[in-house]
Amino acid sequence: MKKTKDAGADHQLLKAIPKVDEFLGWISDESEAPLRLVKKAVRELLDDVRQAILGGQEQSTEFLGKHFLLPRFHKRLAELMKPHFRTVINGTGVVVHTNMGRSLLPDSAMAGLVAAGCRYSNLEFDLTTGKRGSRYSLVEDLLCELTGAEAGLVVNNNAAAVLLALDTLAQGREAIVSRGQLVEIGGSFRIPDVMKKSGARLVEVGATNRTHLRDYEQAITEETALLLKVHTSNYKMIGFTSEVPLEELVALGREKGVVVMEDLGSGSFVDLSKFGLGKEPTVQEAVKSGADVVTFSGDKLLGGPQAGLIVGRKDIIDRIKKNPLNRALRIDKFTLAGLEAIFRLYLDEHNVAHTIPTLAMLSMDHATIKKRVTRLVRRLKKENGMRCEIFSIDTESRVGGGALPEQGLPSRAVALRPTSMSLNQLEVRLRAGKIPVIGRLEDDKLILDLRTVSDKEVPELAAAIIAAIKDES
Ligand SMILES: *Cc1c(COP(=O)(O)O)cnc(C)c1O
User: Fold this and answer.
1) Whose C-alpha lies nearest to ligand 1, atom 1?
2) What is the C-alpha separation between 308 and 299, in angstroms, rounded?
3) Which fold has domain 89-98+363-470?
4) Which one, 52, 66, 181, 413, has the greatest CB density within 10 A?
């Protein structure tokens, strides 16, 4: 009924919407924005206005005036101009946060990346012979030096490493895996699915909680190509459980002439128990145990760029290198530059707790984080008119990256308890800031664990918090 009555008015209003060109005439052309985005913002805004009129939300020509529309246009243009890929402040305390870019690279690695990006390089050019070279050879010797392996290869990520290794070694044949190790990592990587893609036939052995050597032994047939051990990085089974140690699998594999592979997942070069963390198997240990192939990530505990590392026996690595799939999964020059720099830092093993950001954050002591928190809280308390209580609390950080899921690292956080907005509002406002801040909700407060916020970021974080919680009235 209302519709019929207002139909005429709607029509009038619709006709009064400024045309795109007319609107463009209102805009001063000092704007740095590309014309294409300016036009897009105008079109989108005018579309919204049209929809609002049709929906009956806007019923007066007042809303069609320059004074009303221009600020809305500028807001929309600013949104369109904002890069999609942005820096955030990670206040979650999860060090290897897959959704926030996993590992941070040290300056030496960044210098390598920058040079690789804006200068020509010997990516595939052998400077000794003057002939075509191989990109893989740039990091292979360092990888072998650090892990003790005979040979090594780097691909796009560990998922690719597992796929490529299985495709090379077990396509059309059987690969035996313990039921307890058929894990899913981060939603889209499931060991059984990757095996299927590689063309390997999965043979599950053992029970979910316990698998014995005899289970593998009884499953080996003429068709068996591989025994696969998967490090169940992101979950921990407790209670009545047992896994077959890698050494025993290796002995069985040798006896039966079957390749033994371990997907280590995080793959660390250093024993994290040195930092008071739990024990994760190191890559060197896996190699030493005699595994024929070991795969692991570059950007988890290793602290490097996204990559998948494959190390092992030379004849096997040579086969993997020759697989045509390898070409599709190859790493780019940025990854190579970053990896070489990281590997060089690992050559000085005693200093990696300082030189590699991921390890530095994992090994950071409570007192250091506490000092940082105190600095931030003092700064925030100087401000007036905050819509939050601000205090500091003890908390626990997480390793992340699917490593040591049970391990809490004693840490210190800034806690914000809103007094005149909801917790949800606070969370949204922090996320919507110039530099988005991501924290953790805990009961009635939002907490920002400063283990994962650098000293350099503290002033930025302070400004972001102030912008989000200061009373604007
Ligand atoms: C993380 C992980 C992967 C996948 O590694 P990406 O580098 O993320 O591709 C594979 N296997 C295990 C056991 C993992 O923990």
Assistant:
1) 265
2) 9
3) Aspartate Aminotransferase, domain 1 (3.90.1150)
4) 413
- Mutational pocket test of ligand 1: of 177, 233, 262, the residue with most ligand atoms within 8 Å of the beta carbon: 233
Q: What is the pTM of this model?
A: 0.92
Which ligand 1 atom sits nearest the alpha carbon of residue 162?
10
Q: How far is ligand 1, taken at its centre, from the CA of residue 316, in Å? A: 21
User: What three-state secondary structure class fits 11?
Assistant: helix
Share of the chain above pLDDT 70, in %: 96
Counting from 1 in the atom list of ligand 1, the atom nearest the Cα of 186 is: 1
Q: How many CB atoms lie within 10 A of CB 168?
A: 22
Q: What pLDDT was estimated at residue 233?
A: 67
E strands, 148-258, in order: 151-155, 174-178, 184-185, 189-190, 201-205, 224-230
The arithmetic mean of pLDDT across residues 278-292, rounded, is 94
- Where do the domains of the chain lie? 7-81, 89-98+363-470, 107-355
State which ligand 1 atom lies nearest to the alpha carbon of 230: 13
Residues in the chain: 473
CA pair distance 214, 217, nearest whole angstrom: 5
pLDDT-based confidence at residue 275 (cuts at 50, 70, 90): confident
Mean pLDDT of 270-279: 88
Predicted confidence (pLDDT) per residue in 198-225, tens digit: 999 999 998 888 899 999 999 999 999 9
Residue 71, φ and ψ in degrees, nearest 5 = -60, -35
- Expressed in angstroms and rounded, the spacing between residue 185 Cα and the centre of ligand 1 is 6
Nearest CA to ligand 1 atom 13: 265
Task: Give me the helices (H) in 82-136, please.
Answer: 107-118
Q: How far is the CA of 386 from the centre of ligand 1 (A)?
A: 43
Closest C-alpha to ligand 1, atom 7: 158
- The CATH number of domain 107-355, selected from 3.30.70.1400, 3.40.50.300, 3.40.190.10, 3.40.640.10: 3.40.640.10
CA distance 200 to 184: 18
Ligand 1 geometric centre to CA of 151 (Å): 21
Give the tens place of pLDDT for each residue, 416-456. Answer: 999 999 999 999 999 999 999 999 999 999 999 999 999 99
List, for residues 34-62, the tens digit of each pLDDT value.
Answer: 999 999 999 999 999 999 999 888 778 88
Per DSSP, 330 falls in state B
Fold identical between 89-98+363-470 and 107-355? Answer: no
